[in-house]
Amino acid sequence: TAWDPIACPGGMPGAERLAASAPLVELLKQQVAASKITAAICASPAVVLAQHNLLPGKAVCYPAPKFKEILGEKYTEDVVQMDGCVITGTGPGTSLKFALKIVETLFGAEKAEEVGKALLC
After folding, report:
1. 75 φ, ψ (degrees, to nearest 5)
2. What angle do CA 92, 96, 98 make, to 5 degrees?
3. pLDDT by residue (tens digit) across 73-109?
4. Is residue 49 within 8 Å of residue 25, measured between CB atoms?
5. What's the 3-state SS for the chain?
6. Count of alpha carbons within 13 Å of 18, Cβ hemisphere only?
7. What is the dihedral of CA 37, 42, 47, 50, to 10 degrees?
8. Statement: the pTM of the whole predicted model exceeds 0.85
9. Residues that are catalytic
């Protein structure tokens, strides 16, 4: 099965359930290995991606101390972070910026700007 992006939503305990899903984890591993867009927001960068060693470098997550600690030196203060094929976002209030980064990566900056303007971003 081929996917364009795979994006993991955040929230708890949902992120824990995603991390425990063997089929999803296998898809995520295949996605990262193929350098295809893999995205996670809120708790999921720490709880899903970091837990399964799927963060190639810098990342962001919901800024709770327990999640920042999981990311350790990979954690940045940005709102959205892209490192390699992995896009991470901080949470609900920044979800549009996260989504627009996915659009930009798939369809280009012009399309992301067009969509952003339509959403009043």
Report:
1. -70, 135
2. 85
3. 999 999 999 999 999 999 999 999 999 999 999 999 9
4. no
5. CCCCCEEECCCCCHHHHHHCCHHHHHHHHHHHHCCCCEEEECCHHHHHHHHHCCCCCCECCCCCHHHHHHHHHHECCCCEEEECCEEEECCHHHHHHHHHHHHHHHHCHHHHHHHHHHCCC
6. 26
7. 50
8. yes
9. 42
Pick from 84, 88, 85, 91: nearest CA to 71: 88
Place of tokens 């992006």: 5
Torsion sign (Cα): 120, 107, 100, 12: positive
> From CA 100, how far away is CA 23, in angstroms rounded?
27
d(C-alpha 114, C-alpha 46), whole Å:
31
